[in-house]
């Protein structure tokens, strides 16, 4: 029997290319057919290797899921951007490569991100997702999040509702 190592840790600048690839494949899979093609491709292309190299240096914290030396996913987190909400922390993004979804890595990464925010003194956290992103909506609901807020996001000429889930 072979043992596979799984590690949640800060992303490193030299991993920018791998993180950019996770971003590309996970976003195209998650939002294809939901966000219009042109805005989606533009958003993905903006987050190239150079962008991710800078992201590893802050101001948001970038965690990666390393599975036996392969970057399988990432999460970004920091202080909440929704100043009207009482939650002080926010997980901005959490994504896994499609082939690593459904095996519990998302729950592990989410738990580590929550713990890190708590260790930094943040009381409560919020996560936003598109309402029509059924997989994400069910993930956050299943993780015990409470639907507390809503807003809108514009993607080209398409307006999509987003939902804020909170944990106190």
Summarize the structure.
This protein is α+β, with helices and mostly antiparallel strands and 168 residues long.
Task: Provide structural commentary.
By secondary structure, the chain is an alpha+beta fold. It has a single domain (6-167), classed as Gcn5-related N-acetyltransferase (GNAT) (Aminopeptidase), CATH 3.40.630. Helices cover 34% and strands 33% of the residues. The chain has helices spanning 16-31, 37-46, 49-55, 105-119, 134-142; strands at 6-10, 61-67, 70-79, 89-96, 125-130, 146-155, 158-167. The chain has a 7-stranded mixed sheet with strand order 1-2-3-4-5-7-6, sandwiched between helices. Strand 2 (61-67) and strand 3 (70-79) form a beta hairpin. Helix 1 (16-31) packs antiparallel against helix 2. The longest helix has 16 residues, at 16-31. It is globular, with a radius of gyration of 16 Å.
What are the key terms here?
Aminopeptidase, 5 helices, alpha+beta, seven-stranded mixed beta sheet
Strand order of the largest sheet: 1-2-3-4-5-7-6
> How many E-type strands?
7
Q: From the alpha carbons, calculate the radius of gyration and give it in angstroms.
A: 16 Å
H-E string: EHHHEEEHEHEE
Termini separation: 41 Å
Q: Tell me the number of helical segments per DSSP (H or I, 4 or more residues long).
A: 5
The largest sheet, given as strand count, sense and whether it forms a barrel, is:
7 strands, mixed
Strand content: 25-35%
Shape: globular
Helix content: 25-40%
**CATH class term:** Alpha Beta
């Amino acid at each position: 029997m072979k043992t596979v190592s799984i590690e949640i840790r800060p992303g490193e600048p030299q991993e920018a290319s791998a993180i950019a690839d996770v971003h590309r494949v996970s976003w195209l899979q998650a939002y294809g057919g939901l966000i219009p093609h042109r805005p989606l491709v533009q958003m993905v292309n903006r987050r190239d290797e150079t962008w991710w190299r800078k992201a590893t240096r802050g101001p948001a914290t970038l965690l990666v899921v390393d599975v036996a030396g392969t970057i399988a996913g990432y999460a970004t987190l920091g202080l909440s951007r929704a100043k009207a909400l009482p939650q002080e922390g926010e997980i901005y993004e959490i994504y896994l490569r499609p082939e690593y979804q459904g095996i519990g890595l998302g729950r592990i990464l989410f738990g580590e991100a929550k713990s890190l925010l708590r260790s930094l003194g943040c009381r409560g956290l919020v996560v936003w997702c598109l309402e029509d992103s059924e997989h994400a909506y069910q993930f956050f609901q299943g993780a015990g999040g409470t639907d507390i807020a809503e807003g809108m996001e514009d993607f080209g000429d398409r307006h999509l509702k987003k939902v804020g889930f909170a944990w106190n």
